[in-house]
Model the fold of this input.
Amino acid sequence: EVQLLESGGGLVQPGGSLRLSCAASGFTFDSYAMSWVRQAPGKGLEWVSVTRNSDISTYYADSVKDRFTISRDNSKNTLYLEMSSLRAEDTAVYYCARAFRSSSPYYFDYWGQGTLVTVSS
Amino acid sequence: EIVLTQSPATLSLSPGERATLSCRASQSVSSYLAWYQQKPGQAPRLLIYDASNRATGIPARFGGSGSGTDFTLTISSLEPEDFAIYYCQQRSYWPITFGQGTRLEIK
Done:
């Protein structure tokens, strides 16, 4: 059974930093691109970033470019999102999602339950 | 950036009725469009990919159609568990974008 378990969310002050993790199990992690998608409270879905499995290429939404860094440790089956210079508008539930099929850009077939990041003073 | 516009914002129907949800793209995305269902407090679930293909385990009452800029998600006969928010998503161009969602509520 595919499982994605996010952790690392919490309350952080504006300008601060946070690292999210996503522990994956039930599939061959290094065979899949992986992504982060966020959802502000009461709002819709916003794609944040993706890392490919083949060449570890990364892509970012303009809203987080140069502030967030996606990475993965295939030996630990874990996806990360390093977030810095956080703003109030980054407040959201952050979902880890597995890319569906291998050709980019992607759809997402499995999602974690999300971790809440709140940016507030 | 491809903008996806979903309509209506809210759809009020009764169980057993047919639901038709629309997603319009600001430019052609070919058939690279997916639909997701999200229930309160839950993660999204992939329903339809490439405009008309049901994902694994999705009931046959869910159907997708369209290409280019106009897409439709149809639920042939609503079950109580189908009342949720539905999002479309394109993978034709970076950045990946989602529509703003259609809330399907019980009438």
About this structure: Chain B has a mean pLDDT of 97. DSSP finds no helices and eleven strands in chain B. The interface with chain A takes residues 32, 34, 36, 38, 42-46, 49, 55-56, 87, 89, 91-101 of chain B (CB under 8 Å). Residues 10 and 103 of chain B are 5 Å apart (CA to CA).
